[in-house]
Design brief:
The protein has about 240 residues and is of the alpha+beta class. The chain is built from eight helices and eleven strands. Helix 3 packs across helix 4. The protein starts with about 20 loop residues before the first helix and ends in a 5-residue tail after the last helix.
Length: about 240
């Protein structure tokens, strides 16, 4: 079984801007330029774009991905409410991946100057943003490890546990009724599996009484067993 250092990327709250001080909140308000709504399956930011600014996800889910020259898509991470899009581009000057809405999506567009202004004058906010970038990188490391070392069951178990824990950081969440808006193709493109692998593995987890996915909801019926399959602890 693959052993993943699970949970480290989930130690920090999803909402980077929760509980800001007065000065930090004023800076954020002054650089928030507009609200934007997207239906599902629309590009929010494209690979190679420059000067896109930042987006804070208010409602809905999105995902980061890259495509190969042959058209193969690799989903790098799923993005949840309270998380930020565009921090890497603000640092590197260009988007190195694309971001697409998974569900109906509402975001707040923020001037990219926020990052520089935070590092120059608001170190607490700058530390929050830096931790957010580090948590994103850690999640990609964990995903790459489970893809390289885990079988189909371990990969899907990892994805279920990871997304459940990230959502649970925002408050109480019933493991028997957890939002899970991924379609089979999203799971396949995230985990390096075929659609047939996804279907067989989901059927196995359901038949074993461990977890089920139905109607864009995840029901974790035996969390200790699912966590063990994911290579992490149940605590």
């Amino acid at each position: 079984m693959v052993v993943v250092a699970g949970g480290r990327s989930d130690r920090f709250t999803r909402d980077v801007f929760s509980g800001l001080g007065e000065r930090e909140g004023s800076l954020l308000d002054s650089l928030t330029v507009r609200a934007l709504a997207l239906p599902p399956n629309r590009v929010l930011a494209g690979e190679g774009e420059v000067g896109i600014g930042l987006y804070r996800i208010e409602h809905g889910w999105a995902y980061r991905y890259r495509t190969s020259g042959g058209g193969c898509r690799q989903i790098l991470d799923f993005l949840l409410p309270g998380e930020i899009v565009g921090l890497q581009a603000a640092l590197l000057g260009v988007m190195e991946h694309s971001v697409r809405s998974l569900t109906a999506l509402h975001v707040a567009a923020i001037d990219g100057r926020l990052l520089g202004d935070a590092f120059r004058g608001e170190p607490t906010l700058a530390l929050r943003l830096a931790r957010h970038i580090a948590a994103e990188a850690c999640r990609v490391d964990e995903l790459l490890t489970v893809i390289g070392c885990g079988d189909a069951v371990e990969r899907i178990a990892f994805l279920m546990v990871s997304l459940y824990r990230r959502q649970a950081r925002g408050g109480e969440l019933d493991p028997l009724d957890c939002p899970f808006p991924l379609r089979r193709r999203h799971m396949a493109d995230s985990l390096g599996l075929t659609g047939a692998h996804i279907n067989r593995t989901l059927n196995r987890l359901r038949q074993d009484g461990i977890a089920t996915v139905e109607g864009h909801r995840l029901a974790i019926r035996d969390f200790p067993r699912l966590a063990a399959l994911a290579g992490t602890s149940a605590s």
